[in-house]
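seq:
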Amino acid sequence: MVGAVPAYPHPYDARMTPRTRLLPAALLSVALVATACAPADEGDSAATSTSPTASASESTDPCAKESLQTQTPGTLTITTDKPAYEPWFTDDTPENGKGYEGAVAAAVAKELGFTGDEVTWTRTKFDAAIAPGPKDWDFDINQFSITEERKQAVDFSSAYFDVTQAVVTTGGSKAADAASLADLKELKIGAQVGTTSYDAILSAIDPSKKPGVYNNNDDARKALENGQIDALVIDLPTAFFMAAAQLDDGKIVGQLPAAGGDQEQFGLVLDKGSPLTTCVSAVVDALRADGTLDSIADEWLSQAGGAPVLN
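struct:
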């Protein structure tokens, strides 16, 4: 989780940020005012009388800060799990803007027009965040992979990170010398419950033994250290941090191939049908297009070198 894994390239089109979107609306407003000031026939009086209302409506930017329908007016409420793990956050303090997701959240808030003291952080468990039902926060950032199943219950923003799953073990484990998916098939492998990491075990490895399921990555790591499992599957940036900083003689066996060849991506989670989804997605797209997401990844995520794709 430390170091610098550049975000995977993705062909997103550059889109207007909330600030740049104001320009055409302002020009339209000027044109309408000019039209209203021109001489008009008596028969046009009714149409002329409605033009100020039309002008005000058409010049309103739905993504301007004052137009955003947040949970608390004038405040952006962001949530994540407890604890907030590195390299995604630093010191379990998401409000400090450090770590990859801490920095991404801060950048999104800034682009939406919110200053640091106008952002409130709360904590929400992983499973609760993607469960159906109304939310009491504006968006959640917590390594949520975008899936069609989850889209039935929540909204996702555009992707802010392209990710792969990786197998982590220790030097003395049966998985330490694995060089292929076949070498992992007879081993006991674990992952956090409800994650795409668990799904990747089933789809990519299809092990003969039922995978171990844990409440969080800390529990899965402890199971590995205690010899209850031979390896665990987590996202690649977390794998780098865990192998280097949390495990004695930690080792990344390799990356798992993407299911069906589709690139797995993380997105911000919003309430189903949230009025913020379009504006938040526009900001994420702009941060990707101008290179901000790449710069944040370079600062906070480890390099992918030394983690071969297993076949």
